[in-house]
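user: can you give me the structure for this one chain? tokens are fine.
assistant: on it. calling the predictor now.
[tool input]
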Amino acid sequence: MEDKNLITIIVALGVAIFLWVLTQICQLAMKDVYNYLKGLIKRKSHNTISTKSSENDVHIHQGDEKGWEESNLKRYLRRLIAKCDPLDLAVTEETCQTSISANDLPPIRVYLKYPERRSGQSIKEAIEQRDKEDGLKEGKQIPIQAVEATVAVSRMVMLGRPGGGKSTLVNYLAAQLAQRRLGEQEKEAGLLAWPPEDKPLPVRIILRQMAAWIGEEVQKGTEGLVWSYLEHLLGEWGCADFISYCKHILDEEGGIIFFDGLDEVGEAEENRKRSLILQAVEDFAKPLKKCRVIVTCREYSYKEKENVGGTHWRLPEAEFPVTELDLFRDEQIKSFSRTWYRITGNRKGWAPEKCDAEANAFCQGIMSSPNLRSLGENPLLLTLMAQIHGRLGYLPKDRADLYEKVVKLLLAHWENRIIRDVNGTCRIEPWIVMRLGVPVDTLRVPLERVAIYAHEQQENARTDKLTCADIPREDLRRELAANLKNDLNKAEKFIEYIENRAGLLQAVDNRIFRFPHRTFQEYLTATGIMRTSNPIDMLIGRLRRDPSWWQEVFLLAAGSTRNTPLNIYYLLDALLPEDPDAVNLTPENVRMAEIAARAIYETDFMDRWKKKFGMIKIMPKNFQKFIAEFKNGYRRQ
């Protein structure tokens, strides 16, 4: 009997367990069915929405999954265009009148400085073989357009100077390719060498923004790090749904991914994050066989073999050959001039003939002066000169006057920032100078001091006279802090801003800064000396010490004080203190007299003095005697 009861209990227990297991299985099955139906409903709801906005006039039909994916693609492309386009031809402007569509711009051909190719050699061979020395020995060298290079090779590092057009080229290509993919590009010439049937998906990643996004917990740079950042970026753009389709297109159809600004990572994070980004870019590119990958970087930073810590941070050159953007040539300066006045003149209501006349006048003004021609090679400085010419109707003949106006524009570039919204509206926001709560001149004074110090150090080092001096980060930080009530935090914020935005001072890397052109180093050295308590002795002493090195500084100092002719009088009198009747004319005296003559000519001293004092005879007597000697063709050694 007991055995029978035990069997009954065991059977009952078994049935209970079986029923419990069956119940759990059914619940799981129902949950899967529920989740499936839920996903189906969600998907169905996506596919039955009709979207119509200023950005995306797309109708999505019920059940059309492909239509939903294409709508996400179009939304993404329009967002990308909004980020890269309109191109801002003005560095600083209080209105939005200089913003234009990239598609409205006639193409300005930009060339590579390195490499060039031989006759009969393909662009791909020239870039990937990089036989620069052999190429120079054999046959005529043919310059390569930057756009041609992006078509010819699948991987490339493109170097360039600060303000030399790297980011502008990236933005231009990304916007043009996005318009082509949308089927809205009216001018196929805008992509120059790109085959009309080639419509790769453009993706642009600004590496300084990616570096800021990378968390402290990230220890390794992988393919997934780039995809994760891209997913984050698309989410910020309101295009989160596009990420899976983006991956599909890049894998199956191909695209072009721009990694802009490899060097633009903050000093404190430089070693770790640069290494992570290098690893991630290399790892990301490997499986994307159908994609082009273009990395941009400042030339000086990338050419350095090692950073301060001894860590290499270059992509493998066998996989990522190096090219280098050239500065503007005469052809590009002329093309830019026509483009600038075609746009700005049209908005002023000028006839085409008037636009062409102003463009020719601007271009001739640049070409007539070696100094201005040298400035015009840099796209950023050329844009500034175009703004000045557009406002005044001419380029100042006095170099010091021109440089002063450009310096003020560049300082204003740090003071305000134009924010352009997706819908085309814009607003001006206070930028770094205003945020620091200091007058703009407060920052000019320390820049003048570092210019003086750097110019003197460069003289002592006897380096190339055509380059700008290196300004160490610590020197800059110290001088800035001295004018910011010893606030090192404000000084550091300003330096971090300079690292990411070209202006009156530009970051070569995270430890070294330079002025955008040698002219600004010399001009700020001149105006800095004129602020000192004894500028005349300081100038004359340096000029006599090394006339070839300090002549331009002296001339620019005289130009900076041109509206006060008495100051120029004192400079000339100090320059030629000896009576030529009492001493022999030495080569040094002759050189000083020639420099004085140039100062008088460049500052229009005679007319300014006459207007101020009504007479000329009060000119420095020794200088008058030297001039008389020259007129008589008299030379004594």
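assistant: here you go. The first strand starts at residue 50 and ends at 52. The two ends are 143 Å apart (CA to CA).
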